[in-house]
Amino acid sequence: MKSFIYLIFVTFLTGCSTNQRPLAEYEGLYEYQNDSTLIMVAGPKREILYATINGARYPLKPTRGDVFLNAGDVEVEFVRDKSGSILGYRENKGDAATKNPIYALLDSNQTLPSSIWIAKPENVAIPYTYKAPPKLNDGIPSRAIQADNPLAVQLVAMTNSIYGEAYPYTQSILVYHDGALVYEEYFYEYDRKKQHQLRSATKSLMAILAGIAVDQGLIPSVNEAVLPYFDEYSDIQNIDKGKRAITVEDLLSMQSGFDCNDWDGDSPGNESKMASAQDWARFMVDLPMSSEPGTTGSYCSGNVVLVGRIIEKVTGKSLKEFADEFLFTPLGITDYQWDFRPDHSNIDNFTQAWLRPRDMMKIGILLDRRGEWNDIAVVSGEWIDYMTDAQSMIGDTPYGYFFWLRYLVPTGDRRFEIPQMSGNGGQKVILLKEQNAIVVLTGGNYNQSSHTNDLLADYILKGLN
Question: How far from 418 is each of 91, 198, 422, CA to CA, in Å?
Fold first, then answer.
């Protein structure tokens, strides 16, 4: 889930203008939308300016003087006072740039430590020597593998490559193999205790919750029509036979038929347009239809919003309360965030969950064990089978219930199935069933390709095969 991604600071753009002022002039704490703040910080070589929002960093392309460009080629212009000091910045969008608000510089001394650009944690020796993950009282068994084990050899090589900045902004990798965690390492400013934003990997959590609601009979079946759950909207727009036929399963499989495609900036239902609406569920049900429900896959985050609101309606609880009682507490997950508030006030976070990587691994183990955790059925195995089986196609990729069925062909003809929870920036929970392994990765490669497939192909799969 990209929240403000299409609105501001959104893609990896590089370059440097010969007329550009020193980036240190722009560093500091600034106002941001919805009474929040962001930090501008110069990059590792002080060639690129980054806007840091909610822990995620977005590079800005310098163009001329005090002007930078975001992903939509919208100018981000820093404004100075008569003495030449930075007052703040504004986005030059719309017909009259002068009407756009100036976000004030609050503290020019508040910046970020240089360690955020360094992959190797402090006090860690190079070259890396394999070590087993610690045994914690969190329900995840761990064990060591021999130093000459092919997997250990590959993991050591991978870690040294990450330390050498070969895979920038890879922030954590965990490998679970043959029933135990055998590798757990963190990079840059991340560690075991730090929560990580899941972005669209949150969608898979929503699918699990929907399964729990179905198991409990709160949602009678996935064939239930969607619109009756939103009868508070008495004047739904663009109503027709197709819209009345949308089912819960159509939402889960991204086949709702709404004219909604997050990959198309011109789509009426694109998430950036939804983010600007006051009520995101209302925005969704008002959309026109572009296809018959259940026939065409289209990646649409608004479908997830509707599933979340349905869960809240049938349970009489907030989504977080329901998730805490029936998903996170059974798994022993206590240190997390999930602010499911589908309206304009949540534009900065976009209803995503934040988990620690070991807790992400617990979700992977739950999926791998068909809904069981410590011999307790958290969600039915039948639901997990449906969730992780192909229900639709998004582009050329099979898709389950808010779950990707991706594959990888590193070399030759061998194809590796890598079904996964997946989020922007490199947030992954990957089930390697053939190898009896689960891989968790987190990263900061927002709005650009993550290093997941390279790390899998170059190291992890080599060690497992």
Answer: 40, 18, 11
Domain match, 106 and 208 both: no
Give the strands of the sheet with 353-355, arranged side by side: 196-197, 353-355, 337-338
* pLDDT digits 0-9 by tens, 68-107: 998 667 899 999 999 999 999 999 887 655 578 999 999 9
Cβ atoms 331, 363 nearer than 8 A: yes
Of residues 440, 431, 424, 420, the one with CA closest to residue 204: 420
Token pair 């017909």 in the structure block, residue: 95
What are the counts of helices (DSSP H) followed by strands (DSSP E) for the chain?
12, 21
What is the rounded distance in angstroms from the CA atom of residue 94 to the CA atom of residue 96? 6
0.90 exceeded by pTM: yes
CB atoms within 10 A of CB 215: 17
Cα separation, 432 vs 415, in Å, equals: 12
- Domain encompassing residue 216: 199-355
Tokens of 328: 């996170």
First-residue to last-residue Cα distance in the chain: 33
Phi-psi region of 448 (alpha: psi -120 to 50; beta: other; left: phi over 0): beta
Phi, psi of 316 (to 5 degrees): 70, 15
Preceding amide of 141 cis, omega within 30: no
Helices (H), 369-450: 381-387
Within 10 A of 106 (CB to CB), how many other CB atoms are there?
Answer: 13
| Nearest by Cα to 172 from 461, 457, 450 | 450
Residues of the chain where predicted confidence (pLDDT) is lower than 50: 1-18
Cβ-proximal residues to 178 (8 Å cutoff; 6+ apart), any chain: 436, 437
The one-letter code for the residue type at 243 is: K
49 DSSP β-pair partners: 42, 60
Last residue of a domain, which of 355, 385, 416?
355
Residue 464 falls inside a structural domain = no
